[in-house]
Amino acid sequence: MSDVKISFKEFLAEQETIKEDYNGWTNYATWRVNLEIFYGRDPEDYKGMDQSDIADSMKDEVEEVIDMDSSGIANDYARAFISDVNWWEIAEHYLPEEDEDEED
Questions:
Q1: Residue 2 lies in a domain
Q2: Which burial class, exposed, middle or buried, applies to 10 when counting CB atoms under 10 A from its CB (0-12, 13-18, 19+)?
Q3: Does the residue 3 lie in any domain?
Q4: pLDDT tens digit string along 15-33?
Q5: How many domains does the chain fold into?
Q6: Helix or strand or coil: residue 1?
Q7: If you ran DSSP here, which 8-state letter would residue 58 be given?
Q8: How far apart are CA 85 and CA 59, in angstroms?
Q9: Which of 20, 22, 30, 79 is the most buried (most CB within 10 A)?
Q10: Is there a contact between 30 and 89 (Cβ–Cβ < 8 Å)?
Q11: What pTM does this model have?
Q12: Long-range contacts made by residues 51-56, C-beta under 8 angstroms, separation at least 24?
């Protein structure tokens, strides 16, 4: 059995085709979490953060809400649901636009 390797560009192209699975999002869980929790947020709230940091922050926030609002089997089901969330994809939509006048 050989290892199949694809380029990052091929991986992203594959993800774009998968993205059409639920209202333009990777899956139902990703769509629902974005809609119910993050929709309407100002990308400026994440200024100074990269996509990975935003994704981690969002996941942590949702996990905190789950832990505050549920316990036992309800908590288990909620955590199972969010395990399908594509945090990277949600974070991509909240990346602040870079100001063209800013200098590095």
A1: no
A2: exposed
A3: no
A4: 665 555 788 899 999 999 9
A5: 1
A6: coil
A7: H
A8: 9
A9: 30
A10: yes
A11: 0.73
A12: 51/88, 51/91, 51/92, 51/95, 52/88, 52/91, 54/91, 54/94, 54/95, 55/87, 55/88, 55/90, 55/91, 56/87
